[in-house]
Amino acid sequence: MHLKTLLEILLVSTRLGFTSFGGPVAHLGYFHNEYVKRRNWLDDKAYADLVALAQFIPGPASSQVGIGIGLMRGGLMGAILSFIGFTFPSVLALMIFATLMQSFDISQAGWIHGLKLVAVAVVAHAILGMGQKLAPDRTRASIAIITLILLLVWQTVYSQVILIVLAGLAGLIIYRGNKDENPVDLGIRLSYRFASICLVTFFSLLVALPALRNVFTSDLFALFDSFYRAGALVFGGGHVVLPLLEREVVPAGIVGAEDFLAGYGATQAVPGPLFTFASYLGTVANGWIGGLVATIAIFLPAFLLILGTLPFWNVIRKNPTIQGALLGVNAAVVGILAAAFYNPIFTNAVTSSVDFALAAGLFGLLVFWKVPAWMVVLIGAAGGTVIFMFL
């Protein structure tokens, strides 16, 4: 693999890691803007297929999409560099925060509020673009809207997975005669053998670690087991992992309740994936080594799953029958993003008419004036500070 390509993957993902605020769905908006619109590394259809797969399997969806794009662009090393670039800024920030002290609360700062409004603009832009490509007719628009409605009124851990399956079945029936004559190859450079080893490793660790925890009584081993299980069993992204982590570390006395809440506030304030909350908890529990162990443990399942499923997914998605199902699934992805746009992104960020005005202005800069996302982030942070100081 060309060194220039790998360096580009690292630099682009690192910039996203420093500027992607707002949680998992906002990250998908930033990715769409950078990788699809700006760089054309993949098209809307391939991106939606990748998002659908990440929503269907356990783990942090945005991180898995980033790993998948890195894999498509630069092979296994590209996947690793894409993950490191996107994750490293928040890991470092949260480990430093845990080391210094948890006595100050920055979650209510004005610039944090401004960054939440940036996420509103970015996700709205992504939904608009993906909706035009993936739900262009009445049938697929209806699938997207029905998915949106059901997710807003029926909120369970498995709602997304169930609705993706139902949308796939609807697409299978409605579009069974539609065949894509030019299916796009995702460019996955991994063998089925390697993918199979990843899947076997994922399930083996899930079964073996709890049993081995009784043999190896090290605190670090126990930490690895707890965070691996949390990363392996969570559907629906970063917010869902928080109560699971709380049950693992607070009752056991690994991290105190106040420290847990302080770290949660700090996690909301940094860019990148919410799963890096594990970096903070591990550092509080066992110093920087604990932070690194917890980080590796919680992201390892996501890595093994996306590397294990993508090579098979790349072939399955070219099947004419599956292509019809994917038309329904991709429309449902638009609905899923729209539902998450309302809650938690819009409801948490827009609390006044002034907030909405700033979000609308940021949306206009992004969509019509084509201002780069990183600059919109800076403008949003400044705008949030002004609102906090004077209004």
TrEMBL record:
<feature type="transmembrane region" description="Helical">
    <location>
        <begin position="357"/>
        <end position="390"/>
    </location>
</feature>
<keyword id="KW-1003">Cell membrane</keyword>
<keyword id="KW-0472">Membrane</keyword>
<comment type="similarity">
    <text>Belongs to the chromate ion transporter (CHR) (TC 2.A.51) family.</text>
</comment>
<dbReference type="InterPro" id="IPR003370">
    <property type="entry name" value="Chromate_transpt"/>
</dbReference>
<keyword id="KW-1133">Transmembrane helix</keyword>
<dbReference type="GO" id="GO:0015109">
    <property type="term" value="F:chromate transmembrane transporter activity"/>
</dbReference>
<feature type="transmembrane region" description="Helical">
    <location>
        <begin position="143"/>
        <end position="174"/>
    </location>
</feature>
<dbReference type="InterPro" id="IPR014047">
    <property type="entry name" value="Chr_Tranpt_l_chain"/>
</dbReference>
<feature type="transmembrane region" description="Helical">
    <location>
        <begin position="325"/>
        <end position="345"/>
    </location>
</feature>
<protein>
    <submittedName>
        <fullName>Chromate efflux transporter</fullName>
    </submittedName>
</protein>
<keyword id="KW-0812">Transmembrane</keyword>
<feature type="transmembrane region" description="Helical">
    <location>
        <begin position="194"/>
        <end position="215"/>
    </location>
</feature>
<dbReference type="GO" id="GO:0005886">
    <property type="term" value="C:plasma membrane"/>
</dbReference>
<dbReference type="Pfam" id="PF02417">
    <property type="entry name" value="Chromate_transp"/>
</dbReference>
<feature type="transmembrane region" description="Helical">
    <location>
        <begin position="110"/>
        <end position="131"/>
    </location>
</feature>
<feature type="transmembrane region" description="Helical">
    <location>
        <begin position="288"/>
        <end position="313"/>
    </location>
</feature>
<feature type="transmembrane region" description="Helical">
    <location>
        <begin position="76"/>
        <end position="98"/>
    </location>
</feature>
